[in-house]
Amino acid sequence: MVALAILRVEKLKSFGNIGGSEKHTARLQDTPNADPTKQNIRLIGAEDERSLEEVVKELIKSKTNYQPRKDAVLCSEIFLSASPEYFRPDDLSMAGTWNEEKMQDFSNTSQKWLIEKYGDKCVRAELHLDESTPHIHAYIVPVNEKTKRLSYKEMFGGSVAQGRLKMSQLQDSYAVALAPLGIQRGVKGSKAKHIQVQEYYQAVNSHPLSLELERFAPLPGETAQELLERIKNDRRIQQLDHQLADRRRIIQLEKRASASSIASEKLRQKMEGQIAYLEHENLEWRQKADLLRDLPLADVSWALGLDSVDGRWKGYGHIISINSSKFYDFAPQQQRGGGGAIDLVMHVNNCNFHQAIAWLYESFGETGVQKAAIAHSLNLTNEIIHSQPCPKFQRPVEDKALWSEVAQYLTSKRGMPPNFVQALYQRGLIYADAHQNAVFVMRNFDDQTNGAFLRGTKGENNTFKGYHKGTKRSDSWFYFHLGGQAQGKVERAVLCKSPIEALSFATLELKAYKGIVQQRTMYLAVDNPKSLPVDFLSTVPVVEMAFDNDAWGHETALTIGHLLKNATTVISKAKGKDWNEQLVEKLYFQQQKLSSQQDIEI
Fold first, then answer.
1. Which of 386, 559, 577, 583 has its CA 20 to 30 A from that of 287?
2. Which residues of 176-194 are buried (b: 16+ CB within 10 A; e: fewer)?
3. How would DSSP label each residue in 47-58?
4. Nearest Cα residue to 293 out of 326, 340, 348
C-alpha cells in the first residue's frame, strides 16, 4: 500500500493545557502504551532545560506587544507522522519496529519543514520512538509578525471554512516536503475521523478478546481426530471462520478503494495544475495580444480635445473620420490620412515623433504609450515588408583565369580526383573568385543559389574560410549527388562538416566501391544543427552523419539524432583526423606503394 503523510493540529488555550501536553510528550507521567526501553529524541529545543510553559511565555513576551486575550490560543500542538507502510514496509504487523534509514529520513525532513515553515515560532519538537509507529509532537506559538499579536486564526484559520482551507494547505505543504521519501498526501476532503489517544487505549483495554478454550478440551476417551472434527463442526467456530473471511474481504476492498481514491486524487490534482497553468498561459497571451493592439483612436481624439459630432471628431479646425486604426482629416486645410495613435497625435498637435510619445505617456501612462509604440512599429514594419523587396544574394564574382590554381589546390593539396573536381566545376557548383578562393555554391532544394562558402587556396598559409556576405545559412546548402538515376529520388543522405569534407568522404566511397555508388546519394555540408533541413531529410530513407571523431562531432551527431530519428553515425576509424586528412594519407601510401613496385621492376 502507498504510505500517506499524517498531520493534525490541536489548540492549547491555557498554560494548564500546555503543561498537561508536555507531561505526555516529554514522558513526565506514566504512559501505558510506551516502551520504557526505547529513548525518544528532542529535535528542536534540546538545549533548553526550561519547561514548555516557560518557553512559550518567554516567546509571547518577546514577540508581542499586547497581553493575550483570555480566549486566545497560546500554543498549537502539531502531530506529524506517516502511515506504517513507510516505516515497516516488509511487515506491518511488527509494531514498534522500523527501518532505521527511513526513520532518519522522516525525522530530518520533518524537522527541516518545521524550521522552514515556522522558524523560531516552533519552540519544541519531540520525536517519539517508544510507541508503535515513529511520530513527532511539535509546539508552535501562533504569533503574527505584522500585528505583534497571537493569532491562531491567521496561522490555522478561524471559521470552519477557513480552518479546512488552512489545514488543507498545511497538509499540502507537508506532503510536498515528504514526497521525495515516497510518502503521498491523503485524499483531500476525506471525512475520516481520527480517534483520540485516550479513546484508543480505552477501546483496547476495556474488552480484551478471549476464546473459551475450555469448551474444546478433549472429552474422556476422545481421540485427536474426533476432537478436530468436533471443533470444525462447532457452530461458533464456523461463525468465526465466516467473520474472518468477511473481514479479509472487507480489508481487500478497503485497500482497493484507498488505492483507487489516491490515484483519482493524484489525477485530480494533476488536472488542477494543468488547468491553472493553461489559465495562466491564456492570461499571458491575452495580455500580450492586448499590448499588440493600438490605443483606440476615439479615446486618443477625446484626450486631444476633439468632440464627436455626427460620427466625426471636430475641433481646432479638424474634421477627422476614424475607421478602426485609420483616420482621415476632411478639413479643407488638412485633408490627409494616417494610421495609429502616434500619427494622430502628431497630426492634431502638429508635433514630432518624440513629442507625440511624451504626450501619450502623460495622457495614457506607460502601458498606453507602449501599446501605441508597438502598433506604430508593426505598421511601419508591414509597410516596409510590402514595399521593399528582400535583397537577393549576390554571388562572388567569378574569375575564370584563376580556376586552374584553385583546381590544382583541390587535387594536389586536398587529394580530389581531377575528373571529379572538373565535373563539379562544369556543373557550376565550384569556381574561383578574384581572390583565388574556392567558391562552393550553396543552394536550396529548388536549385536556387542563396549563399556561398569560401575556402582560401592562395599561398602556403591559406587557412581562410567562411561564408560570403548575404548567405542564407538556413535556406541554402552545398550539396551534390552521386549514384542511382540522375533525376531519381534521393535514397541516402550523408552529412559532413564542410564542403571539403563532403568531397573527401564521397571520394573515399568512390574508391571503396570502385567508382560506383549504387544508391542515389546526396552529400550535404552541415556545420550546425541550426541549419539542418529537417523536413527534407525526414523523407530520406537513410541518413548518415559523417562528422569528425572528436567532441564537436559527437555533440553535433547527438543533437541531430534527436531531430532525425532515422539518422545513424558513420564513425571515423582514425581518431583526431578528418575525412580529408584520411584521404590524403591514403593517397600518400598508395603512391609510396606504387613507387616501390616501380623500383623493383627496374
1. 386
2. ebbeebebbbbbeeeeeee
3. T--S-HHHHHHH
4. 340
Please tell me the distance from the alpha carbon of residue 492 to that of residue 523, in angstroms, as a whole number.
9
Spatial contact of 197 and 135, defined as CB atoms under 8 Å apart? no
Q: Which helix (H) or strand (E) holds 495?
A: strand 492-496
Strands 492-496 and 542-545: parallel
| Residues in a beta bridge with 111 | none
Distances in whole angstroms, Cα of residue 502 to Cα of each of 158, 463, 499:
75, 18, 5
Contacts of 305 (CB under 8 A, 6+ apart): 315, 316
pLDDT > 90 in the chain, percent:
49
546 and 580 Cβ atoms separated by less than 8 Å: no
- Mark out the alpha helices in 36-187 (DSSP H runs): 52-63, 84-87, 100-118, 152-156, 160-178
CA dist 98 and 7 (Å) reads: 19
Q: How crowded is residue 578: how many other Cβ atoms within 10 Å of its Cβ? A: 22
Q: Render pLDDT for 528-570 as a digit per residue (tens, 0 to 9).
A: 999 999 999 999 999 999 998 888 888 999 999 999 988 998 8
**Cα→Cα distances 29→16, 56, 201, 266, Å:** 15, 21, 16, 42
- Give dist(CA 171, CA 78) in Å, integer: 11
Q: Which of 305, 393, 385, 382 is nearest to 348 (CA)?
A: 305
Summarised one tens digit per residue, pLDDT across range 132-153 is 889 999 999 999 888 888 988 8
Please give the single-letter amino acid code of residue 27.
R
φ, ψ of residue 160 to 5 degrees: the values are -60, -45
Looking at residue 413, the DSSP 8-state letter turns out to be I
Neighbour-count burial of 435, counting CB atoms closer than 10 A to its CB (0-12 exposed, 13-18 middle, 19+ buried): middle
User: Residue 164, CB half-sphere, CA atoms under 13 Å: how many?
Assistant: 6
What's the Cα-to-Cα distance from 98 to each of 4, 132, 136, 204, 541, rounded to whole Å? 16, 9, 15, 23, 58
β-bridge mates for residue 78, sequence order: 9, 138
User: Cell 578528418 appears where?
Assistant: 578
- In this prediction the pTM is 0.48
- Measured from the Cβ of residue 79, the count of other Cβ atoms closer than 10 Å reads 17
- For 334, phi then psi, to 5°, come to -110, -75
Cell numbers 539518422: residue: 567
CA distances from 442 to 104, 445, 447, 548 (A): 65, 10, 9, 22
Task: Enter the C-alpha cell of residue 239.
Answer: 461463525
Distance CA 353, CA 359 (A): 10
Angle separating helix axes 224-233 and 235-292, nearest 10 degrees: 50
